[in-house]
Amino acid sequence: MIVGARPQPPRAGFHQHVPTSIPALHRRIIACDRCERLRTHCHRVAEEKRAAFRADDYWGRPLPGFGDRQARVLIVGLAPAAHGANRTGRMFTGDRSGDFLMRAMHACGFASLPSSTRASDGLVLSDAYIVAAVRCAPPDNAPTPEEIASCQPYLEEEWAALSRVRVVVPLGKLAFDAVWRVLGARGVPVRPRPPFGHLAEHAVAGAPTVLASFHPSQQNTFTGRLTMAMLTAVFTRARAIADG
């Protein structure tokens, strides 16, 4: 394990398991019914709705990633929010967490807009791509270990399809752990697993650099545990690593 070292380009074999196409993978993700608890919850939320969104047609299905398919920066969240991405059909869209994230990404040139309100809002990501460890909104934002494991192949495939990734930014501890599981599954040495911390940077020879961040949840942003300056610093550093 090399911590804080100059990042190395991904080794030739890192992206060898590439799906036929990202659109085909996205269709499989959207149609997934592996986790009965998650599918039941998403369907119920989409039927009952929140009062403020009563007129909206909820997405209510598993969510693929989105962004620039030539991205050098991969952002990994935990799971869709019940009345955010599960409603709008796009990761980090339609809630305060998504707006907070896009403000930081916009400030660093990764997002065309400083907000993320709906799938048709015109937002375009540049050199960045967003996925999640779990593709369905979980009850209480808490997927089980079995549900996380069930979704891991989708994270592996979507990441593998993005052949230019040099930096991975996991948002929160659960996403951080998911990233290291994928690296381990791809044969990258990850023992002992490095500690999680905001702006913690871990460069492993032959793989993209992992640059950790606190999650932009309201619990973190309202309490000041994560400030806009702190999140902007993450994407400023991600840009520097990608350009290095």
CATH fold naming: Uracil-DNA Glycosylase, subunit E
* CATH 2nd-level architecture: 3-Layer(aba) Sandwich
Compute the CA-based radius of gyration: 17 Å
Large-scale geometry: globular
Mean pLDDT: 92
Can you tell me about this structure?
It is a single chain. This protein is an alpha/beta fold. It has one domain: 3-Layer(aba) Sandwich (Uracil-DNA Glycosylase, subunit E). Helix content is 37%, strand content 9%. It has helices at 22-30, 36-48, 85-88, 96-107, 145-161, 173-185, 218-223, 228-243; strands spanning 66-67, 73-77, 128-132, 167-170, 201-202, 209-211. β5 and β6 (209-211) form a beta hairpin. The chain is globular, with a radius of gyration of 17 Å.
Helix and strand topology:
Layout: H1 22-30, H2 36-48, E1 66-67, E2 73-77, H3 85-88, H4 96-107, E3 128-132, H5 145-161, E4 167-170, H6 173-185, E5 201-202, E6 209-211, H7 218-223, H8 228-243
Parallel strand pairs: 2-3, 2-4, 4-6
Antiparallel strand pairs: 1-3, 5-6
Helix pairs in contact: 4-8
Labels describing this entry:
globular, Uracil-DNA Glycosylase, subunit E, 6 strands, alpha/beta
Structure described in brief:
The protein is α/β, with parallel strands linked by helices. Helix content is 37%, strand content 9%.
